[in-house]
Amino acid sequence: MRDHAPTSPWFLPPGRPPGRPHRQNSQQQPQQQPPGGASKVVVLVTVRTESDWPLWIAVRVAALADAPESFPRAIAEWADDGERRWRARLLDPSAMNLVALDDGLPVGLIRGVLEDGAAWIHSLWVSPAMRGRGLGADLIAAVERWAEPRAALVRLGVVPGNGPAVALYRRQGYIESRCLGAPLPHGGRELVMEKELAALPPRRDTTRVATGPNDETSSGEPARPSHSTGTS
Fold first, then answer.
1. CATH classification number, 9-148, choose in 3.40.50.200, 3.40.50.1370, 3.40.630.30, 3.40.50.2300
2. What is the pTM of this model?
3. Per residue in 103-113, pLDDT tens?
4. Is there a contact between 16 and 117 (Cβ–Cβ < 8 Å)?
């Protein structure tokens, strides 16, 4: 398994000659396939710097072309976004961007963003050849690990008629939320689903349970409000 992005000029920053791999300034996490899946190792690459925008936009456009009905914006709109906007997205300190590579070829992506006290999953996509092999679950789990020290709740929006996606999220522990989803281009709204993350380990000092909205723990910090708004 290669430890870098593809050497095709499609994925190279401007000015970098073909044949010299564009190594990501990122952490790479090998993901073993479950039994019955591919024998190769899929590498998850965290895209960290603005110079990595060609890789991110290439995979993002591939996702839009493969499943335009699953994303609110059309591929033409994304293609019209300038380089500056793509670079700015990768510099957002409240977000993480992850690409999955199989033998150097992009086969999936996901984006996590902190919004309104929760971590939101955006842009989840797995290539048709890799579906049913656990990669989608791996990508979701990666965002959850990133979110754990930052938020108590993970949310996502999905097109209501996308049965396979809704089923995937339910298998990962997501439930329907009362949160109002974003409007869809052709009418209706996204279905919002959410999952509470596991509680952080208790502190060494003894704390008491808050009994009211203005109550505090014994450490003097405000009690964490409940983020549970889902229904079963």
1. 3.40.630.30
2. 0.65
3. 888 899 999 99
4. no
